[in-house]
Amino acid sequence: MIINKLLGVFGSQRLLQCRTFAMRIAADGKAIPKKKTFENRITLIGADNTVSIIDLKSAESLSLRRELKLVKIQDVDSKTRRPVYKLMTNSEYHEEELEKRKERQEARQRNSIKGQKLLNLSSKIGEHDLMTSVKKMIKLLEKQYEVQVILMYVGQDGEKVCEKMYDIIEKNTKSAGKLVQKRNKGNSLRFQLLPVRENSTQTGGVSDQNTNGNDKGPL
């Protein structure tokens, strides 16, 4: 009987000690409940665009079972504070990689641009003056400037002439720049020329045969 009582006392003390180590005690002596931790929890977007909350290890196992790629598309979501992953097929993955590569290339290109220059040209411009303007565009592109071009419609055939001017500019600047964002706005044709990363030392293929004579008037 005495042995049983002793065992009971020692057992209670041991249990109390275990609880003391297992629980944090506040200043008033009350136990602070242990917070549940969810390590490596992510937001997972399935191949069918369903959204679920899952741990990273389970998501990796799921991607292996379904033969899909697990791709992180966002480091931390601003609302949930969790990283966002997506299950993708091989074709979707390659398409995503190409898009990211394009974005990185455009970002590098934007960072290398020194500034912007604006050129206004009229459809009444002579051929000599147009080619002079084209050479100016090329020089600006080689100096890593973005060139914004506005071709103004003048007269009944203004729009048609500006389209022809656009073709001439595109042909002669392609070694130094890239034409983007072509658009018609009001009575004008507008576009941008972005410098290429590796610039040619040549003048973009502009021929001098049209720059020695007098202006020939509208193209």
Automatic annotation (TrEMBL):
Segments of this protein annotated with the region Disordered: 195-219
The keyword Glycoprotein belongs to this UniProt entry's keyword annotation: no
Record field: compositional bias (Polar residues): 198-219
Protein name: Translation initiation factor 3 N-terminal domain-containing protein
Gene3D superfamilies: Translation initiation factor 3 (IF-3), C-terminal domain
The keyword Protease is annotated on this UniProt entry: no
Alphabetical list of InterPro entries matching this protein: T_IF-3_C_sf, Translation_initiation_fac_3
